[in-house]
Amino acid sequence: QVQLVESGGGLVQAGGSLRLSCTASATSFSVNAMGWYRQAPGKQRELVATFTSGGYTVYADSVRGRFTLSRDNAKNTVYLQMNSLKPEDTADYYCKAVVVLTTNPWRTRDYWGQGTQVTVSS
To answer: What average pLDDT does the chain have?
Structure first.
C-alpha cells in the first residue's frame, strides 16, 4: 500500500514561484520512479518532471530551466520547485509513483496523489 499526499499548490501571479511537495507513505515495495504530472482544462495529462528508474531526471520541454525536481529520501518526499510561472502552467498537478510489485514476473503499479491546483494569473 502506497499513499501519496501532495501540498503546495495555490494562486500566484505570472513570474512568481511555488513549491509542491509529495510525501509517500512507508512501504516495503521498491519505488521504481517518481515524479509530477499535470492536467490543464481541456488538455491531456502530461509529464512535468520525474526521477527515472535509471537515475535520471526528465523534464518536459515546457518547464525545463524553470522547474526543479528534488527529493528528501529520509522523509520519503519529492519536491517540485516552480519558478518563473506562466499562465500556461495553470493545471492540476499530480504526484505519481511507480512501484515494483514483483520481479518474476515483472509487475508494477502506478500510485497517484490526490492532486493540487496551481493557478497562475497574468
So the answer is: 93
**Under a CB-based contact definition with an 8 Å cutoff, are residues 18 and 82 in contact?**
yes
Cα–Cα distance list, 55 to 32, 33, 58, 63, 92 (Å):
10, 9, 10, 19, 26
- Cα–Cα distance between 92 and 52 in angstroms, integer? 22
Residue range 74-91, pLDDT digits in tens: 888 899 999 999 999 999
Which residues lie closer than 8 Å to 42 by C-beta, 6 or more apart? none
Integer CA distances (angstroms), 62 to 2, 31, 58, 76, in order: 29, 26, 12, 27
Give me the residues paired with residue 36 across strands.
Answer: 49, 95
